[in-house]
Amino acid sequence: MIRCLFALSLGVLAASILGDALTGDPLYVTLRIVAIVVASLCLPLTIIGSVTSGTGLKDPKKVAEAKAAGRTTLARVTGIRATGSAVDDQPVCEIGLLVVPRQGHGPYRTSVRQVVNLAQLPSMQPGAVLVVTQLHPERPEVVLDDAPDPDWVRRAGSDRQVRELRDADVWALPQKGRSAGGIRHIPFVVFPVLAVVGFAAALYPVWDDARRLVETRSIDTVRAEHDAAAAAETSMFTPGNLRPAIDAVLALSGDEVTEVYVFDQWVQVTAPTSPGATTTDEWHYRDGEATHEGASLIQPEPEDVPRELFDASEIGWEDLPPLFDEAERLTGIDDTDDPMLWVSREVWADEKPSDPRVRVSVSDDYYDGSVVFATDGTVVGTNGGAPGSEVAAAAGDA
Question: Hey, which end of the chain has fewer CB within 10 Å, N or C?
Answer without folding.
Answer: C
